[in-house]
Write a structure and sequence with these properties.
single chain; 160 residues; alpha+beta; Peptide Deformylase; three-stranded antiparallel beta sheet; 3 helices; binds zinc ion
């Protein structure tokens, strides 16, 4: 298990557009393993390669702890509906904000073996897909927050 350093807001690497992955290499395989390790260790549900300083179009997501997905060169090809809720990001520690996203997305991507697949996602998984894909184009959820960015602690207090 190898953890990578999570880059935080203010780091230029998070503002850049990532490059497509052309072939699977041992180095990229290792990157994907490390991204999962880093995401689980930080209790996140998704992580994009630029968050560990690598400008490649790779995202890992696991919203339940039992459904790990790897998305290489992902594209959203269909979307519908709307959901509004709190969102957070491992690159913006201690903060949360309200973001509206589609409630359904269809994604096409390559898996870790560079095999194409299609995924239809709803609710939290759809939100995670939209959030992580934004990272690949240099965007953070903080650009989309409705109202103010809040401290995560305050939000949990409100809900109790
Ligand atoms: Zn994020």
């Amino acid at each position: 298990m190898a953890l990578r350093k999570i880059r935080e807001i203010g780091d230029d690497v998070l503002m850049k557009v990532c490059k497509e992955v052309k072939e699977m290499t041992p180095r990229t395989k290792l990157l994907i393993e490390d991204m999962f390790d880093t995401m689980y260790e930080a209790n996140g549900v998704g992580l994009a390669a630029p968050q560990v300083g690598v400008l490649k179009r790779i995202v890992v997501i696991d919203t339940t702890g039992e459904d790990p997905y790897v998305f290489i060169n992902p594209r959203i090809v269909d979307r519908s509906g709307e959901q509004t809720g709190y969102e957070g990001c491992l690159s913006v520690p201690g903060k949360t904000g309200t973001v509206t996203r589609p409630n359904y997305v269809k994604v096409v991507a390559l898996d870790e073996n560079m095999k194409p697949f299609e995924l239809e996602a709803t609710e939290l998984l759809a939100r995670a897909v939209c959030h992580e894909l934004d990272h690949l184009d240099g965007h953070l959820y903080t650009e989309k927050v409705e109202g103010e960015l809040k401290n995560t602690e305050d939000v949990y207090e409100d809900e109790e």
